[in-house]
Amino acid sequence: MTNMEIKSILKTKGVENLFHANTVCTAITFLKYGGLLSRGAVENMGLIQTSQISDNDDKKYGVFYDIFFDSVDIHKRTNKLNKYGPLTFVYNLDVIDSLPEGSVKITKKNPIHWTEDMRDNEKYFTDVDELEFCFQKGDFGQHITLVDQHRPISFDYLCEIILDNPNLIRDKDRMILKKSRFYIAETLEKCGLRSLLVNRGCSDQCNCSSQYNGYKEGYIYYRFSPEIEL
Ligand SMILES: [Zn+2]
To answer: Is 146 part of any domain?
Structure first.
C-alpha cells in the first residue's frame, strides 16, 4: 500500500489526527531533539527516556525503531489516564505526506499480543481492501506506526501538546505537577512551540484524577517529572 492509499482510507474513516502519548521525561527528549523519536533511536543517541515493559518484546519483534500512534485520544475516549503517559502529542494526518513510501504501517493488534510465528500480514494490514473493511477509528490495537525511524519526526505537523491536569490530593504530587508544567512550558518556549500547549480539560465522567490519586507515592513523579534517575 502506498502512503497516499493509507492516508486516504484513514481520512474516510474520520481520522484527522494522530496521537502519541508519553511520559514527560521522554517527551522533553523529543522536544530537545526536534521531533518524536523511536525508542531505538533514543537509545542509540544515548538520550533519556523512561523504560517501558514492552522494550524487550519490541526488540524481539523488530518494532523498537518504530513510532506508535493512535487514531484517537485514548484518555478522552476512555475517560481514563493513558498508561503510556500524561503528555499527548497531536499530529496532523498530513505528516504522512512527509514520509518515505513504506514507512507507514498499521498493526492489526498491539505487538504485545504478537507471537514469534506470526507472518507480516498477520501483524499488519497489507492490503487496501482489508484496511478499508477492517480498520476502525478508536480500535486501540490498530496502531498507525512509522517504521524504522532513526531520525526525529518533525514538529512541523504538530497541532497540539495536551498535558494531563488532574486534581491531585497530595501536596508533594501537586508540587511535581506544577514544576513539570513550568518546565514543559519553558522547554516549549525555547522550541517556539509554546502556543501548542493545552491543559487537558476532562469531562465529569473522567476517572483520571482518582486514578492518579490512587497510585502509590512516586507514580506522579515517574509520569510527570522531566528528569528521572534511571
Ligand atoms: Zn481525565
So the answer is: yes
Structural domain tally of the chain? 1
* Cα 118 to averaged position of ligand 1 atoms, centre (Å): 36
230 within domain boundaries: no
CA of 180 to the centre of ligand 1 (A): 17
For 178-184, the CB contacts below 8 A with 24+ separation are 179/225, 179/226, 180/24, 180/224, 180/225, 180/226, 183/24, 183/28, 183/226, 184/24, 184/27, 184/28, 184/31, 184/87, 184/226
Q: Would you place residue 138 in the very low, low, confident or very high pLDDT band (cuts 50, 70, 90)?
A: very high
Whether residue 135 is contained in a domain is answered as yes
pLDDT digit string (tens) for 41-93? 999 999 999 888 888 888 888 899 999 999 999 999 999 999 999 999 999 99
Alpha carbon of 202 to ligand 1 centroid (Å):
5
130 C-alpha to ligand 1 centroid (Å): 34
Gap between the Cα atoms of 215 and 229, Å rounded: 20
Compute, in angstroms, the gap from residue 36 CA to the centroid of ligand 1.
23
Separation of CA 203 from chain center: 21
- Ligand 1 centre from 115 Cα, in Å? 33
Domain-located, residue 95:
yes
Quote the domain boundaries for residue 58. Answer: 3-224
Whether the Cβ atoms of residue 94 and residue 157 lie closer than 8 Å to each other: yes
156-175 confidence digits (pLDDT tens): 999 999 999 999 999 999 99
Torsional sign, CA 101, 104, 107, 111: positive
